[in-house]
Amino acid sequence: MILYEYPFNESIRTMLRLEHLFDRLGQLIARDTVVDHHYALATLFEIMDVAARADLKSDLLKELDKHKLQLNGYRGNPSISEQALDTITLRIDHAFNGLNQLNGKAGAALNSNEWLMSIRSRISIPGGTCEFDLPAYYAWQKHAPASRRADLLQWVGSMMPLAEALQVLLGLLRDSGTPQKVVAPAGQYQQSLPQGRVYQLMRVRLAAADDLVPEISGHRLMASVRLMKQDAEGRLRPSPADTSFELTLCS
Fold this sequence. Notes:
By secondary structure, the protein is an alpha+beta fold. The chain has helices at 10-30, 34-51, 56-72, 82-100, 114-122, 135-141, 145-157, 160-175; strands at residues 2-7, 180-184, 188-192, 201-206, 213-218, 222-230, 236-238, 243-250. It has a four-stranded antiparallel beta sheet.
């Protein structure tokens, strides 16, 4: 099965982008080759660019606090486990405190590292990090993999509170939805959304064997999925087949 996620607002779009970058960063740091660690640095700089949004930290703190208040409202309900509530609220508290103690924006502390900033200024230039452009960076790339990894982990450390907050919030959001099996007649599916309820994320899970690509769109009143198939030249064409898939709306 292949999972696609579609955000309904800019806040969730930013969170998904950061989650994607943190996931890539973790995979790259764990490897040993120089080229992987080069792209780990490039990903680190991408995270700094996305996280530079002025209100991101405050938005995440507000969301964490809102979820905690909602969960505390379930206390005393005999159908809900107090132990489960305690576990979730502890995770929220830990993420909130870590993010709240972060000075400035995520990665702001790295801006004072002139060596890193010299790489950042050239890494988007094609071939801009050659040894004759950045000899100090070239020398760092000759260090042992474990040494480079230790440096990368140190630089990423200042961003881990952001990564933890994203993991908690997106986990709660995904858990709020209930998967349902639906059918797209002739590859087209539309669903009206109930008024008074705000959805933030749509998840579409397709069978890999169907070899289909979804074109997803949505707003507060309607969710739509059009299933496409690639032709021999890679162009997407509407699929004429009736196809079932799994749809989850998360609020």
